[in-house]
Hints:
Elements: H1 2-8, H2 13-17, H3 19-26, E1 44-55, E2 61-63, E3 67-68, H4 69-78, H5 85-102, H6 111-132, E4 136-147, E5 164-167, E6 171-176
Amino acid sequence: MILVFLHVAPTNTVSKRYSPLVNAWVYPFFEQNWRLFAPDPESVNRRILARTAHTGSDGSVRVSPWFDLTTADRSAVEHHPFPSHTAQNMLRRAWAGYVDSHGGDDKARTERALMMQKYLSNIAADRAAARQGGVFDFIQLRVVTLPIPVPGPAAGNHPPTPVENRLLPWWKVTRHGK
């Protein structure tokens, strides 16, 4: 409660001194923006896929097939009468935070970028562990971006936007599984 208070309180000596600590705790959990009042609808659909890897004691590497994290999120929300905000947006917002902090080259240059990378990899690793079981030490994400077509007759007047297929590097994660 104190950290949230320091985050929303007017700037003062204490909030200035502890702003890195406060921001590290507050973001990404309590991000403030105006989207509730002026939403910015998505213009693309993103599918976030993941695969895992495990290095055996003999040095062999076992890589899992790709599986779709976004589809799992959608299915958890689709038939739920009161889906939680986190079920709907956690993965999507983690990806948005990653892109905002990393840009297009996947190199973390700030503490916030490292935090967003860790946040995204933790979400993916936890969901991979829940989905597939087994042991893994590394995770890799692939993000496929598909444009949302323009409705109506205007759809035929515009050339299709190219699809983005972004492959992220392998990330070491805390060992998951048994």
